[in-house]
Amino acid sequence: MKVLIAEDEQILRTVLTGTLKKWGYDPVAVSDGDAAWKALRQSSDAPQLAILDWMMPGMDGVEVCRRARALKEKHPLYIILLTAKDGKEDIIAGLKAGADDYVPKPFDMGELRARVDVGRRMVELQEKLSARVKELGEALEHIKTLQGFLPVCSHCKKVRDDKGYWSQVESYIMRHSKVLFTHTICPTCMTKHYPEVQDSGIVLSGG
Description:
This protein is an alpha/beta fold. It contains 8 helices and 7 strands. The chain has helices at residues 10-22, 33-40, 61-70, 88-97, 109-145, 169-176, 187-193, 195-200; strands spanning 2-6, 26-30, 49-53, 78-83, 101-104, 159-160, 166-167. The strands form 2 sheets. The protein has a 5-stranded parallel β-sheet with strand order 2-1-3-4-5, sandwiched between helices. Strands 6-7 form a two-stranded antiparallel sheet. α3 (61-70) runs parallel beside α4 (88-97).
């Protein structure tokens, strides 16, 4: 999973980049808030997990959070905010801005890994839920296909589709569903159209 690291301290940025690689992630490191915002607003291949320093040149981490949450991103985004601020008001401000987690500096790498792994699991879960919602939506559209009023000719029994074309009912249903038709003769039509077969005692079946 691609992880954005936005940290203006070069040594810490380098350590985080190398550590995340060891943990199996694909880190993208930047040194200021403007570059972080640019990375997150990409329409494709944007990081789905971000570790943002609160105090950075240009746009700070809280503002990056706020702007990222204003985006209608197609993919889930989990944000961890790093900061030396540890006041309750600061934590509230960061979470209100859109951060999912908050890690005060200095931090333990083991703790950070646990929080990053939680973020990865959350992103993966959201992706699975989104895929399931899409599947259910497609299934609902499929069900709706054969619902509603269907104009049928009183004489020939052809049906009219939404484009105004008339076709045999079998053709219409096959185009709008996975139903396949096979033809046979019902007992009533057998008696009406083939009385000689009915009188002979021969039994016809179809399926």
